[in-house]
């Protein structure tokens, strides 16, 4: 059909035609060799939109010569699955490509999985969500291969664009088109590793450009204008979004300002301002912590301001605190100490609260032995405030240390106080 989108027409027919993904389908990989010999295992394809999940499934079918059926788990019903099962019985074996497999319900699963087990249906599931979080374990256990697809490199996309311009049967090769290398590079760069977006943008730019002397010359202004409309890398609420949050936090923890701002930009473009603000607050206490306690208040103020301002102005206070956290002294000692205490409790390291620490604000407390507490504020010690030597941990845990100070920033001063107080106890 002439009106089919270019991205659809350019889908690979064999695995040798697949753009990128050489780490799983290169000529030297086990999967490539299996498919070339006609053996196709059930598998899960995991990756962001536009990296070629549907294309790979089609190409595997083309290389293996096994009949191919495609369904979407969101819309497919029991009857759709039963129809595929009937076709499998007639053909001996079929490939079922099931998009959005993380949405597969139990009724669909019960209908399909016995036939996956007996080998009459080869299941190729596709998902943008982490299969270990969102795909039913029963499905995962029947898919021998869980393949994480990588976003295409700019060079991969560039080669695909040139192939589309040259292909006379499925691409634009029958048309007189003039495109400079620089223009194709800009289209590849704008697509951000998404093959579908790259081909769609190329096709749109072609139709938005003028024909001069029988040749359509791609228009620079059309590229610039249309590139802004194709969206960015990041699916709000999906696995990719959480990967971006993770990358932001790890970049801040690693004090890489440029990387942190890059991931912040992607996250803000996704539009989920609240999730970004929540993660920044966590980071202030998890990664900066006691080394710079003021950062927590700064991030709280910045995130409150961001929510009140809304996007795009929200980016201004958030950028400031991201840079501040990147370049701040850092410590995770406080929450690590708490986690150590929680772990000790789970291991059964508990004991009775010392009597002098128990509540004594009621008649009869003295008769129960809840006496002997010394009020530290009554015993000043230098400029520190009040301190008195007395036991606080249960007898069974006396002497245990959960807190291990990090000698960084403001915590360096706190660590010195901690060690001094330890010496008073001995």
From TrEMBL:
Top-level taxon: Bacteria
State the SUPFAM superfamilies in the record. Answer: P-loop containing nucleoside triphosphate hydrolases, post-AAA+ oligomerization domain-like
- What are the entry keywords? ATP-binding, Nucleotide-binding
Q: Name one Pfam family in it.
A: MgsA_C
What sections of the protein cross the membrane? none
Domain AAA+ ATPase as annotated: residue spans:
39-151
Instruction: Tell me its family.
Output: Belongs to the AAA ATPase family. RarA/MGS1/WRNIP1 subfamily.
Q: State the name under which the record lists this protein.
A: Replication-associated recombination protein A
């Amino acid at each position: 059909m002439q009106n089919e989108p270019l991205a659809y027409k350019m889908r690979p027919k064999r695995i040798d035609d697949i753009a990128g993904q050489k780490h799983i389908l290169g000529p030297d990989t086990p999967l490539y060799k299996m498919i070339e010999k006609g053996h196709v295992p059930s598998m899960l394809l995991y990756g962001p939109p536009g990296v070629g999940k549907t294309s790979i499934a089609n190409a595997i079918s083309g290389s293996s010569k096994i009949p191919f059926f495609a369904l979407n788990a969101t819309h497919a019903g029991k009857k759709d699955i039963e129809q595929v099962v009937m076709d499998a019985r007639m053909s001996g074996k079929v490939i079922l490509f099931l998009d959005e497999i993380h949405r597969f319900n139990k009724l669909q699963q019960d209908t399909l999985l016995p036939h996956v087990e007996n080998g009459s249906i080869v299941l190729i599931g596709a998902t943008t969500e982490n299969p270990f979080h969102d795909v039913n374990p029963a499905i995962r256990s029947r898919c021998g291969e869980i393949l994480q697809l990588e976003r295409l490199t700019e060079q991969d996309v560039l080669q695909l664009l040139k192939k589309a311009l040259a292909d006379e049967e499925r691409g634009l090769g029958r048309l007189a088109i003039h495109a400079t290398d620089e223009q194709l590079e800009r289209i590849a760069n704008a697509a951000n590793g998404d093959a579908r977006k790259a081909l769609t943008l190329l096709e749109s730019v072609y139709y938005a450009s003028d024909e001069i002397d029988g040749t359509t010359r791609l228009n620079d202004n059309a590229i610039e204008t249309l590139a802004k409309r194709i969206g960015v890398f990041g699916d709000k609420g999906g696995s990719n979004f959480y990967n971006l949050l993770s990358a932001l936090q790890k970049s801040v923890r690693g004090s890489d300002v440029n990387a942190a701002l890059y991931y912040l930009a992607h996250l803000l473009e996704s539009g989920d301002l609240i999730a970004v603000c929540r993660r920044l607050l966590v980071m202030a206490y998890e990664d900066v912590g006691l080394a710079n306690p003021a950062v927590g208040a700064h991030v709280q103020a910045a995130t409150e301001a961001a929510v009140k301002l809304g996007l795009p102005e929200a980016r201004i206070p958030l950028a400031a605190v991201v840079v501040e956290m990147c370049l701040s002294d850092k410590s995770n000692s406080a929450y690590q100490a708490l986690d150590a205490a929680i772990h000790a409790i789970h291991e059964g390291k508990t004991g009775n609260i010392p009597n002098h620490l128990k509540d004594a604000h009621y008649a009869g407390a003295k008769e129960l032995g809840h006496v002997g507490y010394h009020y530290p504020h009554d015993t000043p010690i230098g400029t520190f405030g009040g301190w008195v030597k007395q036991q606080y941990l249960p007898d069974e845990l006396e002497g245990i240390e959960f807190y291990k100070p990090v000698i960084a920033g403001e915590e360096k001063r706190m660590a010195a106080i901690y060690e001094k107080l330890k010496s008073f106890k001995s």
